[in-house]
Amino acid sequence: MASSPPPPGSLDLLERRRAPYAGPLAAIAGDLLARFQPAGDRPVLEIGAGAGQLRGWLPPPLRARIVHSEPSDAATRAVRARAADATVVRATAEALPFAARSCGAVLGLCVFDAVTDTQAAATEIARVLPPGGRFVHLLDMATLLEQPFEKLAGSGLVPIPNVFGDPGDHDWPLDIVLLERDWLENLLRFAAAAGHPFAAAFTPIFAPFLAAPFDADAASGAFKAIAGSGDRRRTLAALLTSASRLSVAEGHRAVEPLPFHSGRYLQSLLGASFAAAGFAIELSEIVARAIRRPAADDEKALRYRSLCLGHERLESELPRRLLAAVREPPSDGDILVEAGVFAFIARRLG
Fold first, then answer.
1. Which residues have CB under 8 Å from 116's CB, separation 6+?
2. Which whole-number Å values give the CA distances from 239 to 12, 164, 248, 251, 253, in the listed order?
3. pLDDT tens across 17-58, in order?
4. Which of 314, 312, 311 is nearest to 303 (CA)?
5. Could you give the 3-state DSSP secondary structure of residue 52?
6. Are residues 14 and 119 located together in one domain of the fold?
7. For the packed helices 146-154 and 216-227, what is the interaxial angle rounded to 10 degrees?
8. Hey, how many other C-beta atoms are within 10 angstroms of the C-beta on 188?
9. How far is CA 122 from CA 37, 49, 66, 99, in A?
10. What is the mean pLDDT of the chain?
11. CA 118 to CA 94: how far, in whole Å?
12. 194-223: b (≥16 Cβ within 10 Å) or e
């Protein structure tokens, strides 16, 4: 199965979201590629290049060696519009038009959450790398949800956005919590019978999670409808808590939501796939950088902003937990900007 092309308009949206964090994101990419260098003088291949965002973060010597591959025609045109001298080929991560052992390294930015057959892609990357060649994957935005949602549905669990706390309070953003499907169905029935507003407000939204057969795309859309609205998130937190307490008072079973980190799901998937393809895992963790810079016109009320695996924090004061070690707070007129990236680096064994 081929990699999924980016949805229309998503590349522009991603670039706009990344723009305030360009400094720390480029620093992370530069530091990692200086530490884990490509093998020899072979070309460096980027898979799933999108609109070429990663190209701008690369050190100039590496940029001169890179070949971008991308399955989407629209994204390929966007790379060429960004850099007329860029070398771009149409290809999926599962079928690369390169000879065996011909690439010094393979890079990817937010690619493997969109690859449908991770084992096939890992095996293909292993084919084009020589022993010692590295695969470097960076994830700065939230992962796609369809694959884990399919597995969770098979386990009788319903994911909802973490509406009960700050996802940034954890080493890996706690972006999702899980509810037992049977418990949720019973709670919705109870709320409907009791005239509680939880049923009217959220039965239609949770319907894709409770339907048979399960439709991962519909469930992902329902999840995003909650996650993308502050009002809906607050309403879910209040009504779910209220309905749960009322049901427990009536003798129903209490249930504690289970934590689920979508980034850690991808971490486990990459680790297993690349180990099976003959790689040694050299790094698999969140890497963070912080910079101080003058606040832009739309940041005058802020002293802090961060982006970590898609979770963004905008604060008028420094939060209690930072992503990186910071010696001094920003001075007047400046803002502290942090970025957190899940960096996965694997070396091809002989």
1. 1, 2, 3, 4, 147
2. 35, 12, 14, 18, 17
3. 999 999 999 999 999 999 999 988 899 999 999 989 999 999
4. 314
5. coil
6. yes
7. 110
8. 20
9. 19, 17, 19, 16
10. 91
11. 8
12. eebebbeebeebbebbbeeebbbeebbebb
Give the pairing of strands 334-348 and 279-294: antiparallel
- Looking at the structure, tell me whether residues 140 and 281 fall in a common domain: yes
**Same structural domain, 194 and 111:** no
- Give the length of the chain: 350
Count of beta carbons in the 10 Å neighbourhood of residue 126: 21
Q: Would you state the pLDDT for residue 3?
A: 44
Range of the structural domain that residue 139 is part of:
10-144+264-348
Ramachandran sector of residue 209 (left: φ over 0; alpha: ψ -120 to 50; beta: rest): alpha
- Tokens for 167? 């996802």
d(CA 202, CA 11): 31
Note whether residue 204 is domain-resident.
yes
Q: Which two tokens stand for residue 168?
A: 């940034």
Q: Is residue 167 part of a domain?
A: no
Residues 286 and 203 in one domain: no
213 cis-preceded (ω within 30 degrees of 0) = yes
End-to-end CA separation in angstroms for the chain: 27
Give the contacts of 256 (CB within 8 A, at least 6 positions apart). Answer: none
**Looking at 228, 260, 292, which one is the last position of a domain?**
260
